[in-house]
Write a structure and sequence with these properties.
By secondary structure, the chain is of the alpha+beta class. 46% of the residues lie in helices and 8% in strands.
Length: 206
């Protein structure tokens, strides 16, 4: 998916939705911009539609998926009976294979995780897969394909993993064996929410 200038998009959304904007420099820049707007009195109150659109874009850009994919996930969440649609949407986004790879710490970004899967470096339950959007479930095992373990991108994986562990309670990964898995369904407590999903659902309910 073609995204565009990341800093410009992040500034418009008011959130560090990309790894390159998750820096102190970007945060300070945003803080200064907000202060300038308040001093100048130029900030206009956004409409309810505008707020919903902004929140939707923030979540979609965080996961780096197309509008078509995202709207399909929303429709799936809203059509689920007996469950909170916001929780269902959150779970569906988090259980994408590329997101699981990112959460495991194997890739520095979800975009890099998508490329990793697309290039055939990952196996699920012992079978190579090239589908980043594959829906994972508790019990599914993820591993680096044997033929890819010596690839440059995985050099020093154990050391890098120990320095910057990114695992949460619902995912496991052993850097030495280069394999792990999904232990349980993610929740808002175990996986950070990218935005106000209730507002996102309201946008699509218009």
């Amino acid at each position: 998916m073609k995204i565009g200038p990341k800093y410009k998009i992040a500034k418009r959304l008011g959130a560090s939705v990309f790894p390159k904007t998750q820096t102190q420099k970007f945060a300070l820049s945003e803080e200064r911009a907000m202060m300038n707007k308040k001093r100048g009195g130029m900030r206009r109150n956004a409409t309810e539609f505008g707020k919903q659109l902004l929140e939707k874009q923030k979540v979609r850009m965080t996961y780096g998926i197309s509008e078509k994919q995202f709207s399909n996930y929303v429709a799936e969440a809203m059509g689920t009976h007996g469950a909170n649609p916001a929780d269902t949407l959150h779970r569906r986004l988090e259980l994408r294979l590329d997101n699981v790879i990112y959460r495991m710490g194997l890739a520095p970004s979800r975009r890099a995780a998508r490329q990793m899967v697309s290039h055939g470096h990952i196996t699920v339950n012992g079978v190579k897969t090239t589908i980043p959007s594959r829906a994972m479930r508790p019990g599914d095992k993820v591993a680096i394909r044997d033929g890819s373990k010596k690839a440059v991108m995985f050099e020093g994986l154990a050391e890098r993993f120990n320095e910057n562990p990114r695992l949460t309670t619902w995912i496991t990964f052993d850097a030495k064996s280069m394999q792990g898995g999904v232990e349980e369904y993610p929740t808002v407590d175990s996986a950070p929410v990218a935005g106000d999903l209730t507002t996102v659902l309201s946008f699509y309910s218009r």
